[in-house]
Each structure stands twice: as structure tokens, then as C-alpha cells.
């Protein structure tokens, strides 16, 4: 797949940069979807893709999602993303991360990195040795630390708004929530749900994740597969692993009345949002409810203050409520209502860039 021949849902990027350092094994792609609102902020995913095409498709999809996410979050930041192609357990090294940092620096601030799947705050500290344009650093280095904390909190806020819309009460107490993926974000989300009185059913491919759930929350239930989770009697389904969780096979099997999770790009293809709507399933758009993490790392640019960032992330409840109401008023799926709001802000604020400043 070529960048210029990408499908409509992946097209429209300003810039796509391929980065390679053979000595360290670095193969990376940085995609800048839009800088209409400001520099393109988005995490770096380190993942063993099956092919270069798969890596390219993922980074194009993710970077577009970041533009919409940052817009809805009210940030003066555009959308971008990066992927490093390879198994982080095998090839991640200081040399590779520093080489990657130099490529980021070469873009002179058009792209600002952060953590994502396969990368952690310690990695961003290393990347930051070679570039100014990185967030998600450790607290010891003046950063925001683990962005999973506010990502999970934001998802919980969005889930409460969806519960209020569907059931008339924002509490998850007495509701059964299925969490697919109890990694960095899913673990924090499980805690919020348990503390709120929800019944949690979860799954993960990792045995360590299973052991953690059983030991930490014995009142929760672990099932062996996502198929088992979806088939469970759920009120809310929370995809918190990789994208594409909602497709032609899974949507017809869902028992949940609400889908609200942390995973990026949950809709496998355009049209899935209509399938959900037709089945009477309320979908809280992923790039809206999982924006707490980017709110956290964006706050780092100003000089990080956790309480301030959490207050900003709390607004995800209000924005989710607004979008769900707009969707009802306009007779469209919530994903369409969210897209329209994000695009409107990018157009209106982006237009101001046409005013010349000497």
C-alpha cells in the first residue's frame, strides 16, 4: 500500500516519514496527519508487525485518530503517531531509542512523541536525550509519568456519561463490565470499576495479567478469550487492547448495551458505527473517552501538574454527554457526531493560521 493510494479513511496526511538506522535495527514510520491546531502530538507504538504494509496502515490510522482526539480534548495540538517495527523484547536498546529521537528532532517540532503500546516512560527518557520534542517522561525528569493513569480515568468518566445516557444514572454500581485487555490502562480501569461497585469480567492473552487480576481482585472473573467475554451477560463492553475490536463478527454477538473502552481505533472499518446503532448499542467514541492520556502528557508541555491535568480529564464526562445528546438530536451515531465536532474545531481554529503574523 502506498501513502498516496491509501483508502479514504486513511488518506489526507500532511507528512509521512520513514526512519532507518541499520546499526541499531531501527525501522520506524512517523505520520503527521494534521498540524491545523498545532504540533502533531501522538505516541510511539513498538510492535512486531507482520509486514511493512501493516505497520504503515496502523500508523496512518492511529495518527488520524490522534488529530480527532486532540481536537475533541480542546488541545491546541495536531495529530500524529509513530510506529517502530520490531519486537521490543528482542531489539529495543538505548542506541535504537536514541537514533529514533534524532529522527524526531529532525522534524523540528512538527511531531511530539509520547508512550504507546510497547514503549514506556523509561524509553521516553532515553528518547529525550536526543530530542526536545517528547512527552510522557518520568517524574524524575520533569515529565508526567505513566499516562495510563489518566487514560483509564478518562475512560471511566466517559463510561459514567454513557451509563447516565443509557440507564439514567452515571454510577456503574450493579452493572457488569467486560474488560478486554488488562494491561497498562485496563488495570487502572478495573480499579475504578471495582471501587464504583461494578461487577468485572476480564480477559487478556497474558498469564501475568490473569494472575494479577486473580490476586488483586478475587471478586472479579477471568475468562480465557475475548469470544468468551463478548458472550458473557454484560452491561458494558470495554475494549482495552489493540484496535479493530468491533467488526462484522463481534458486533452481532455483543450482549452489552454500551461499548466504551481504551483501545484506539476500535471500529474495524467504516460502517461498524451504524451496525452498533442499528443493534441499539451505545458506542462512546474511543478517541473521545481515551483522551485522558494525551491530556496528561500535553500538560507536560506547560510544566506538569497532575491535579490540573486530572481536572481537564474530568471534562471527558461532559463532552461525552454532549456528543451523545447531539447524536440523538441529529439522528446520527455518536461516532459521526464526535467526528463533526472535532472537524469543526480543526477547521475553525485552523483557519486562524491564515492570518499572517510577521
The CATH top-level class label of the largest domain: Alpha Beta
| Uncertain parts | none
Helix content: 40-55%
The arrangement of helices and strands along the chain is EEEEHEHHEHHEHEHEHEEHEHHHHH
Q: Which whole number gives the mean pLDDT?
A: 93
Write down the CATH topology of the largest domain. Rossmann fold
- Tell me, briefly, the overall form: globular
First and last CA, distance: 41 Å
**Radius of gyration, whole Å:** 19 Å
CATH architecture of the largest domain: 3-Layer(aba) Sandwich
Total strands: the figure is 12
- CATH homologous superfamily identity of the largest domain: NAD(P)-binding Rossmann-like Domain
* Major sheet size, sense and barrel closure: 6 strands, mixed
Please report the number of helical segments.
Answer: 14
Account of the protein in words:
This protein is an alpha/beta fold and 358 residues long. The chain folds into 2 domains: 8-67 and 77-141, Leucine Dehydrogenase, chain A, domain 1 (Rossmann fold, 3-Layer(aba) Sandwich), CATH 3.40.50.10860; 148-290 and 319-343, NAD(P)-binding Rossmann-like Domain (Rossmann fold). 44% of the residues lie in helices and 15% in strands. It has helices at 52-72, 88-91, 94-106, 121-127, 148-167, 184-195, 207-216, 226-231, 272-278, 286-289, 292-302, 306-314, 316-330, 334-351; strands spanning 15-21, 26-34, 40-41, 44-47, 78-85, 111-112, 176-180, 199-203, 221-222, 236-239, 258-259, 282-283. The strands form 2 sheets. Strands 1, 2, 3, 4, 5 and 6 form a 6-stranded mixed beta sheet that branches. It has a 6-stranded parallel beta sheet with strand order 9-8-7-10-11-12, with helices on both faces. Helix 1 (52-72) crosses helix 14 (334-351), helix 5 (148-167) crosses helix 6 and helix 13 crosses helix 14. The longest helix is centred in the N-terminal third of the chain and has 21 residues, at 52-72. It is globular and about 55 Å long. The relative contact order is 0.13. The model has no long low-confidence stretch (mean pLDDT 93).
Amino acid at each position: 500500500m502506498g501513502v498516496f493510494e491509501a483508502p479514504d479513511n486513511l488518506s489526507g496526511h500532511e507528512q509521512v516519514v520513514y526512519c532507518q538506522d541499520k546499526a541499531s535495527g531501527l525501522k520506524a514510520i512517523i505520520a503527521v496527519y494534521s498540524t491545523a491546531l498545532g504540533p502533531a502530538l501522538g505516541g510511539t507504538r513498538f510492535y512486531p508487525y507482520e509486514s511493512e504494509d501493516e505497520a504503515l496502515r496502523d500508523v496512518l490510522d492511529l495518527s488520524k485518530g490522534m488529530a480527532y482526539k486532540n481536537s475533541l480534548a480542546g488541545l491546541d495540538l495536531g495529530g500524529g503517531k509513530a510506529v517502530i517495527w520490531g519486537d521490543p523484547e528482542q531489539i529495543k536498546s538505548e542506541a535504537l531509542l536514541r537514533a529514533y529521537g534524532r529522527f524526531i528532532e529532525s522534524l523540528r517540532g512538527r511531531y511530539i512523541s509520547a508512550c504507546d503500546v510497547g514503549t514506556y516512560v523509561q524509553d521516553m527518557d532515553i528518547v529525550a536525550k536526543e530530542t526536545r520534542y517528547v512527552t510522557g517522561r518520568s517524574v524524575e525528569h520533569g515529565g508526567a509519568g505513566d499516562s495510563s493513569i489518566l487514560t483509564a480515568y478518562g475512560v471511566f468518566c466517559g463510561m459514567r456519561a454513557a451509563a447516565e445516557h443509557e440507564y439514567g444514572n452515571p454510577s456503574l454500581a450493579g452493572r457488569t463490565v467486560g474488560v478486554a485487555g488488562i494491561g497498562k490502562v485496563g488495570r487502572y480501569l478495573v480499579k475504578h470499576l471495582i471501587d464504583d461497585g461494578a461487577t468485572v469480567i476480564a480477559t487478556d492473552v497474558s498469564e501475568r495479567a490473569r494472575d494479577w487480576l486473580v490476586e488483586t481482585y478475587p471478586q472479579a472473573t477471568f475468562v480465557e478469550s475475548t469470544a468468551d467475554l463478548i458472550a458473557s451477560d454484560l452491561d458494558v463492553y470495554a475494549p482495552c487492547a489493540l484496535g479493530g475490536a468491533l467488526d462484522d463478527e463481534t458486533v452481532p454477538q455483543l450482549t452489552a448495551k454500551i461499548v466504551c473502552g481504551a483501545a484506539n481505533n476500535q471500529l474495524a472499518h467504516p460502517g461498524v458505527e451504524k451496525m452498533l446503532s442499528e443493534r441499539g448499542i451505545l458506542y462512546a467514541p474511543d478517541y473521545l473517552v481515551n483522551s485522558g492520556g494525551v491530556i496528561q502528557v500535553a500538560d507536560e508541555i506547560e510544566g506538569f501538574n497532575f491535579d490540573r491535568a486530572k481536572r481537564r480529564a474530568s471534562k471527558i464526562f461532559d463532552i461525552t454527554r454532549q456528543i451523545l445528546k447531539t447524536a440523538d438530536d441529529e439522528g446520527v451515531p455518536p461516532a459521526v457526531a464526535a467526528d463533526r465536532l472535532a472537524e469543526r474545531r480543526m477547521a475553525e481554529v485552523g483557519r486562524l493560521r491564515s492570518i499572517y503574523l510577521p
